[in-house]
UniProtKB/TrEMBL annotation:
Organism: Erythranthe guttata
Protein family according to the UniProt entry: Belongs to the disease resistance NB-LRR family.
Gene3D superfamilies from the UniProt entry: 1.20.5.4130
Domain of life: Eukaryota
InterPro entries xref list: RX-like_CC, Rx_N
Residue ranges of domain Disease resistance N-terminal in the record: 6-88
A Gene Ontology molecular function term of the record: ATP binding
Transmembrane segments: none
Keywords: ATP-binding, Leucine-rich repeat, Nucleotide-binding, Plant defense, Repeat
Keyword Cytoplasm applies: no
One annotated GO biological process: defense response
Protein name: Disease resistance N-terminal domain-containing protein
């Protein structure tokens, strides 16, 4: 289920912000933004958990959420591994090492993927859950969920 993936990624981001501040440098603002986005998704999924008849739109959106979560996790791991390797080579300059790549990658993922998921969740799916409909199509609003 997507909610476990969101929770796991939230824990990872919180851990980065708490324990690896020396490696994330100027990416802190983007990670805080990602944390906020993930909190929004987690809240939506918690609200949706008790609703009956979620329909195919919801299931496709959950699959897309999982894909995005994996992509964000892989990006964080890749950037942090690169930052740690640079820090190991030059421990004296560890705090001065740029983390531009991490900030840039997180910002890109938030803008291109995570915000899209939030829009889907609170757009078509929000209407479906509030209205109690089945949500089997996204034709009314023009929102499309692609796999």
């Amino acid at each position: 289920m997507a909610s476990e993936g969101v929770s796991f990624l939230l824990e990872k981001v919180n851990g980065l912000l708490k324990h690896y501040i020396d490696l994330i440098g100027n990416a802190e603002d983007e990670l805080l933004g990602l944390k906020s986005d993930l909190d929004t998704l987690k809240s939506f999924l918690a609200d949706a958990a008790g609703k009956p008849n979620k329909g195919e739109v919801f299931r496709r959106a959950e699959r897309k959420m999982r894909e995005v979560i994996y992509q964000v996790e892989d990006t964080l791991d890749t950037c942090l591994t690169a930052s740690a390797a640079k820090a190991k080579k030059n421990p004296i300059r560890r705090l001065a090492l740029p983390s531009y790549s991490l900030a840039k990658e997180v910002k890109s993922l938030r803008e291109s993927k995570v915000k899209e998921i939030i829009q889907i969740a609170y757009g078509e799916l929000g209407k479906m859950l509030i209205g109690g409909g089945s949500g089997s199509t996204g034709e009314d609003s023009g929102t499309t969920v692609t796999e």
